[in-house]
Amino acid sequence: MVLIQARNITYKYPINDGQSALKNVNFTIEEGGFYAIIGKSAAGKTTLCNVIRGFIPHFHRGDLQGELIVEGKDIREWEMDELAKKIGFIFQNPFTQISGVKDTVFDEIAYGLENLGVEVSEIKARVKQIINLLGIEHLQDKNPYELSGGQKQRVAFAAVIVMDPDILVIDEPTSQLDPKGTKDIFEIIKLLKERGKTIILVEHKIELIAENADYVYVMHEGEIVHGGKMEHVFSDPKVLEYEAGLPQYALLGIEVQKRNPSFSRIPINKSQAEKELKKWMEKQEVY
Amino acid sequence: MRHIENFVLNLYPSTKLMLPIFVAISIFLVPSYYYAYMMLPLCMVIALLAGKLKEFMELVIKGLLVLVLFIFIMQSIIAPGEEILWNWGIISVKKEGVILSLTLTSRIVAIASAFLLFFRITPIQDIGQALEKVGMSPKFSYAIIATFQFIPEISKRSKVIMEAQKSRGVETEGSLLTRIRAFIPVLGPLVLSSISNTEERAITLETRGFSIKGKKSHLYEIKKSNVDIAIQIFTIILMIFLLVGRLLTWY
Q: Per-residue pLDDT for B3 more than 60?
């Protein structure tokens, strides 16, 4: 089922140099899919997230053209409080993603559920569950202001997923995290996908996208220049022209293909690379 | 998480508020400075019951002692009077001055310690929740709570900015004038960064469903018990007694 449909979206921020932040953007998001948005900095990825979550046009002014249909209704007609229940949104900067009215991490994570009017006993159970899921038991009694960047990022992530929205828009959730923390977050995103959530993720860590995402959209200068099934996009050398990056296995495959066109299928992850190279070497009688 | 098993701490915010109100009014009804000075031990007893005596005393000593001593000395010297108690060069301490400053400082001590204690034993979230219960908008109570939570953050942030400006060559140490001058490059970024953060803060609140209409729940529901009502009524009656007594002994 099509969940989100964007048609010819063009958007200009109120204060800018006359350039459009988004130009003629079209895409479709299917229910239950895991979509990754890649592209170099200032390509319009964050702006796109803001449109999907409705902060454009409800919060940021500026000129929005085209239409974005979420569950059959245009984003302009959605009420902000309805969108809050429907779409979870985690943005880049973890330092400002604190409610500012709670003393402890536990209370901070519970804040969204309080606003939803959930029963206290259920709040406690759900918050505990999320804290266990993210492995942040050691933080639960700390003041959210006194956490490190990575810890704040995990708490912000927890505070949104505890509200259990159907759609998650996640903008660079791992910018402050070490490799282990990044992997943990991806594990949780995978788990959320298994629970049937629709995920839209902006991320620079291409290898992890190659292991997890279903679809990839490539953005360049405000446009979606490439998009489709992840295997498709990541095996296409054209992505490199947009400086969006490719998995190292794909880069290897592309290099081999350049020198020897008989290497037909470009791998995107480790297991595929091993398989393809082995097959190709056997054919070339390298052994 | 909060686990409160304490009689004083479990009282309703408006019950706790009766203390500073009672103190502030009664010290003007009972004119003796002995009475006003007695308010400090009273607060100490309540603080002890709440298990916050140490915190409370630290605040009183750090915040109040210097101020009160300063006012006491200044008033004693400056206030005019006839009966000189002590003389040193052009400085003379008069009896009237001492009595006046005793009265003044006793009132400052009484009111300040009552309010300090009130904010020690009442979490600001509870005050916000109590205000919401009497019909105030959640936006307004958010603003109050967020402001109180942000105060320690401001001092931390100003230290960071101070360090940053130091590394850019701004002189922050030395004479009083240099220190005052260094204040401006610290204040500017502090205010501006706070303003620029408000946009993302608003978005954060929106993602946590702040604007969702309907009943919100509270992790720590505050409840008014019969004990609260009894204490409130008792305090009000006490205040009426003091008022009547004061009016009868007016002349």
A: no
